[in-house]
Design brief:
Blueprint: E1 5-9, H1 16-27, E2 30-33, H2 34-47, H3 55-61, E3 67-72, E4 75-80, E5 83-84, H4 92-101, H5 105-119, E6 124-128, H6 131-135, E7 141-146, H7 149-162, H8 169-185, E8 198-201, H9 207-223
Parallel strand pairs: 1-6, 1-7, 2-6, 7-8
Antiparallel strand pairs: 3-4, 4-5
Helix pairs in contact: 1-9, 2-4, 2-5, 4-8, 7-8
């Protein structure tokens, strides 16, 4: 079969990564978590005391960041200067830092180059915030996942509870709203739905229902390739 790409975009907590991983497994294609790359840059800044308000400091730090991505059973493992940080980047702090560094053009240019190279020679599913509009504008399938702030807050609180962490629902909700604001209004490649993307509201859908719906869309689109 001819190689193809699937782009999944949407705000934090809409279910992008979970859904993309499941689809990758079912289709036997490569999954690329682009958000993890921005989180890795953000984590480096946090660990090294780099002021996230100082863009020039972040750009200078790029030279010191050795990011490697390894694939194990179709899943992405990410390494920062030799350390496996796949789990460490999944904190609220790293997510907030990711939003800050993602607004900087040199950071985006470096990571987009890595992302596009990963898509060469493979059928891929990639999730993020500007995949369909910027990273893979020619993707065969473009999906925009969305969900209400209330539902996304509930999901994040549940994740934290499962990790044994304490949380404040109002604070989590505010962080999600602030991240949406940051992602949708950044100067370079903001979060938005591609003109040819199919929007799915996942607020009251199970993961299985979302996966099933997207697989049907993929099947119809790929027939035309």
């Amino acid at each position: 079969m001819k190689q193809y790409s699937i782009a999944i975009d949407g705000p934090a907590g809409s279910g992008k990564s979970t859904v993309a991983k499941e689809i990758a497994k079912k289709l036997g294609i490569l999954y690329v978590d682009t958000g993890a790359m921005y989180r890795t840059v953000g984590l480096y800044c946090i660990k090294n005391g780099i002021d996230l308000q100082q863009q020039s400091h972040i750009v200078s730090a790029l030279k010191k960041i050795d990011m490697k991505i390894e694939l194990s059973d179709g899943m992405q493992m990410i390494f920062l200067n030799g350390e496996n940080v796949t789990q460490k980047i999944r904190t609220q702090e790293a997510g907030k830092a990711a939003s800050a560094v993602a607004a900087i053009l040199p950071v985006r240019e470096k990571l987009v180059e890595i992302q596009r190279n990963l898509a060469k020679g493979h059928s891929v599913i990639m999730d993020g915030r500007d995949i369909g509009t910027n990273v893979l504008p020619d993707a065969a399938v473009k999906i925009y996942l969305n969900a209400s702030v209330e539902q996304r807050t509930k999901r994040r609180c549940y994740e934290l509870a499962m990790m044994g962490k304490t949380w404040d629902k109002k604070q989590i909700e505010q962080q999600i709203i602030q991240r949406d604001e940051s992602d949708m209004n950044r100067k370079y490649h903001p979060l938005k739905k591609a003109e040819d993307a199919i929007e799915i509201d996942t607020s009251f859908m199970s993961i299985e229902e979302v996966v099933f719906k997207i697989l049907n869309i993929v099947e119809e689109k790929i027939k035309k390739i």
